[in-house]
């Protein structure tokens, strides 16, 4: 799903959606590849359209040169260590640039883009270059390389929410300790070095072909040095992300290396990375894995998973204790590594033909088929069909949400609202957790999200225990008590018309059940619905049809594809 799609399908400049959070892996080749929920992807399949609010972008500039044997897994673990998850990348696109890209292979970029979702980003996208071009042109099927469009950022006008520099020369072998992907320490740290293990796993999508090869070469070198897997009955398994990779392991003899080193070679797939089928870690078992997530119960109910590179897992598998792989990596003959490299690795003598850069369409459109319709805001109420089949807006009561400020912490590990409430504001307002039992907080996943601008007055007013009322019609949050309106402060926010309509309808699925394939025409006020809306007192909200930017839509950034 991810491995071969990146290797043989995704092309620079494409826009890709998929129903999995690791769809972002394909950003390794310079395309915008985003994971969505099943309903959103289904809407794209059915209607041929999908809408996005354009997110902010952060820039991570790679500099320096990594030491031999350091791949994408250790690089992204270092990024997580330095910048932490769900901070600078949260709800943003992460763009990877810089002179250090010269030393990052397509497979290394894949691992980094893959775990951008663990970083908290919507997706990761690598600036395409000669490395990308060589990789894409190595494909055998013409249609999977001829649609490439090579874009790059404008050095003088590109706007980033934040920019950070990561020095690849500082990257070493790391371990991300259970249960947080950003609790990252060097493998030599005393908190993990020599930690006893019940299982070692190499594989799943984030472990690219070159990582699987490096893991085998570490095992091979260890065997040459006289190391042998302990006869301890503990579990060692390697599961590549696709069948072509396992075929490569068989034909190259590396599968036999894994088997001689005590590893079972499994059928390509997710395996222990999701812990849902036959491959499950047992309760209280401690594992070292090259997968992408080490969340609670990820590898199996009650299991304890720690993350590392394939090389680190391989070196640790002999004595089933966390081990630094660097000495074994340093002993691998360069010619042996060079002979086994796949297309996703850097060649010793890389081709340096730069792509043919193209300019994207202008942000100001003059195409006659791209139009924007500005209409009056809709009143609250229900959309119904009139006699012509066009949707009308009926009257309705005010839409308001009343509650108290209660951010949802521990969202990943909390399975119920009660568990979530027991952690609410645990670090800043411990006394609030008792009041959480009153139902004042709930998970934010799948619910309406409102982003407040950096407004010191709002944050000063919205304190623990203060009443809040959200008026969705007036785009206003009232903070404070007082039924007569006195003693309350008003703060405005911005929600797009589409967000409001989807909230009113209960989500994308109910919207489709109500309007069928025309739901985007209705929600966005395009086509016949636009013409009708301009004649009504209660018109549909501001909308932009086509790839129109936010100026005509009241400042929003919404794209239709």
From TrEMBL:
Protein name, per record: Aconitase/3-isopropylmalate dehydratase large subunit alpha/beta/alpha domain-containing protein
Family annotation (InterPro entries): Acnase/IPM_dHydase_lsu_aba_1/3, Acoase/IPM_deHydtase_lsu_aba, Aconitase_4Fe-4S_dom, IPM_dehydratase_rel_enz
Keywords, in A-Z order: Iron, Iron-sulfur, Lyase, Metal-binding
Cross-referenced Gene3D superfamilies: Aconitase, domain 3
Residues passing through the membrane, by range: none
Family annotation (PROSITE patterns): PROKAR_LIPOPROTEIN (PS51257)
Entries under PANTHER family matching the protein: HOMOACONITASE, MITOCHONDRIAL, HOMOACONITASE, MITOCHONDRIAL-RELATED
A Pfam family the protein falls into: Aconitase
SUPFAM superfamilies cross-referenced by the UniProt entry: Aconitase iron-sulfur domain
Residues in Aconitase/3-isopropylmalate dehydratase large subunit alpha/beta/alpha domain copies: 9-318
């Amino acid at each position: 799903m991810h491995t071969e799609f990146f290797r043989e399908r995704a092309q620079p400049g494409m826009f890709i959606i998929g129903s999995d959070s690791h769809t972002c892996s394909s950003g390794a080749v310079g395309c915008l590849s985003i994971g969505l929920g099943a309903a959103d992807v289904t809407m794209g399949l059915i209607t041929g359209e999908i809408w996005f609010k354009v997110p902010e972008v952060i820039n991570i500039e790679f500099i320096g040169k990594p030491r031999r044997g350091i791949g994408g897994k250790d690089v992204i673990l270092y990024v997580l260590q330095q910048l932490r998850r769900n901070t600078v990348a949260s709800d943003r696109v992460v763009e990877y640039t810089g002179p250090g890209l010269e030393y990052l292979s397509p497979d290394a970029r894949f691992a980094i883009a893959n775990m951008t979702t663990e970083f908290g980003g919507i997706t990761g996208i690598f600036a395409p270059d000669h490395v990308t071009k060589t990789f894409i042109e190595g494909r055998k099927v013409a249609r999977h390389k001829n649609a490439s469009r090579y874009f790059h950022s404008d050095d003088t006008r590109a706007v980033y929410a934040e920019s950070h520099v990561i020095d690849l020369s500082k990257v070493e072998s790391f371990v991300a300790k259970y249960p947080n992907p950003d609790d990252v320490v060097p493998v030599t740290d005393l908190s993990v070095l020599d930690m006893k293990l019940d299982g070692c796993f190499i594989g799943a999508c984030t472990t690219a072909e070159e990582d699987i090869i490096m893991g085998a070469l570490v095992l091979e070198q260890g065997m040459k040095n006289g190391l042998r897997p302990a006869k301890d009955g503990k579990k060692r398994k390697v599961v590549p992300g696709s069948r072509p990779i396992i075929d490569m392991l068989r034909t190259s003899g590396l599968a036999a290396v894994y088997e001689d080193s005590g590893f079972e070679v499994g059928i390509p797939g997710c395996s222990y990375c999701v812990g849902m089928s036959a491959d499950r870690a047992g309760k209280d078992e401690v594992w070292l894995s090259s997968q992408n997530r080490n969340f609670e119960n990820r590898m199996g109910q009650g299991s304890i998973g720690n993350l590392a590179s394939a090389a680190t897992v391989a070196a640790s598998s002999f004595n089933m204790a966390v081990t630094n792989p660097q000495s074994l990596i340093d002993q691998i003959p360069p010619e042996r590594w060079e002979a086994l490299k796949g297309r996703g690795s850097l060649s010793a003598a890389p081709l340096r033909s730069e792509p043919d850069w193209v300019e994207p369409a202008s942000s100001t459109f003059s195409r006659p088929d791209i139009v924007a319709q500005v209409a009056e805001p809709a009143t609250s109420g229900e959309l119904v069909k009139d006699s012509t089949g066009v949707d009308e807006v009926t009257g309705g009561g005010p839409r308001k949400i009343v509650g108290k400020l209660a951010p949802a912490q521990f969202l990943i590990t909390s399975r119920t609202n009660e568990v979530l409430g027991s952690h609410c504001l645990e670090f800043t307002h411990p006394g609030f957790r008792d009041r959480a039992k009153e139902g004042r907080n709930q998970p934010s996943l799948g619910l309406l999200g409102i982003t407040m601008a950096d407004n010191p007055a709002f944050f000063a007013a919205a304190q623990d225990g203060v009443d809040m009322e959200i008026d969705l019609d007036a785009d206003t949050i009232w903070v404070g008590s007082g039924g007569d309106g006195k003693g309350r402060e008003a703060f405005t926010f911005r929600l797009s018309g589409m967000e409001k309509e989807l909230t009113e309808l209960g989500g994308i699925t109910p919207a489709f059940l109500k309007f069928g394939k025309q739901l985007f025409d209705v929600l966005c006020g395009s086509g016949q619905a636009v013409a009708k809306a301009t004649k009504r007192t209660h018109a549909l909200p501001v909308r932009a049809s086509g790839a129109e930017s936010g100026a005509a839509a009241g400042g929003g950034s919404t794209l239709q594809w």
